[in-house]
Amino acid sequence: MTKATSTRPSQTTMAGVMVMLAGFFVVVSVWDSVSRLRSIETREAIEKFLAEPPGNELSLSVESVIDVLHVTSMIAAACAIAAVALGWQVLQRSRSARLVLSLVAIPLFITGLVAGGFMSAIVAVATALLWLSPSREWLAGQDAPRPAQDRPVAAPTATSTPASISPPLSTSTPARRRPDPVTSAVVITIVTAGLVFVMTLASVVLFATQPDLVLDELRRQNPDIEESGLSEATLVATSYVSGGIGMLWSLLAIALAVLTGAGRGWAARGLVICAAVCAVLCVMAALASLAALVPAIAAILTVSLLRRPESRAWFSDAGRPPPAG
After folding, report:
1. Could you tell me the maximum CA-CA distance found in the chain, to the nearest angstrom?
2. Does the residue 161 lie in any domain?
3. Whole domain around residue 81: which residue ranges?
4. What are the record keywords, sorted (predicted)?
5. Any alpha helices (H) in the chain, and if so which ranges?
6. What is the number of structural domains in the chain?
7. 140-163, pLDDT tens digit by residue?
8. In terms of pTM, does the model score above 0.70?
């Protein structure tokens, strides 16, 4: 086996570590959710949900909803524990572990949206990265494909063709293959920003249809709101504005990621700046909610991948400026 096939690519290590860390946080989140599942606050929230549309159309009791949430949480925890073990096995170069992890990631993503927050989405994204190059080649025991400019070029041989009929020499440079770190950054950004957009849109819709339920939850999670003297109108306006900014920011990140994948240097610079600002804001928001760590980790990975030497060299090719940090 050659050195190229025995050395684990950094993208594979990154994806495997993401799976294990995210799986661990899902277990912690499930433990916290289950511990509060039968609390008075949770029961009151469920009762209020079942008393108003669309909850009153489900024909469920409070105990039934609690049982459903409990089973869902247990499934998420079991899948998360399996994902941690399978993530380690993938780092040991097990193709079967990658396949099983892909199957486990589906129920983990679905149940994790209820019990594990955004962390289950990180497992799904990291698992998808394991099917991309160079992880795909490494797990298959093959050499990762090299960019066109790194491939050996055969030396020209002398021929007897008269100079008068020799074809003109081409001065164009063949298109360079997009580096894997750039592809990974694009995938991470599109998936994470897409999930943030969908979740934010769902929150705005829920707030528009069930404002009392959302306001009660905000007061429960932040008891200081009552003491701060903020009115309901202020909370409603702040929620709509923050939701709109979140959705616009997600769409901007997706657009920049698509243009970055197309080789636009200015888009890569914009994506680096966008991701850096997002990382700082999300780390600050993580003090109130651990769910904010998910986009923070994704943003940090995006900046790191786009700042790699091969990524900057690719954007520098054909007059493309490298992304600024």
Report:
1. 93
2. no
3. 1-143
4. Membrane, Transmembrane, Transmembrane helix
5. 3-6, 10-35, 40-51, 62-91, 95-115, 119-129, 135-139, 180-209, 211-221, 224-228, 232-261, 265-285, 293-306, 309-316
6. 2
7. 887 655 554 445 545 555 444 454
8. no
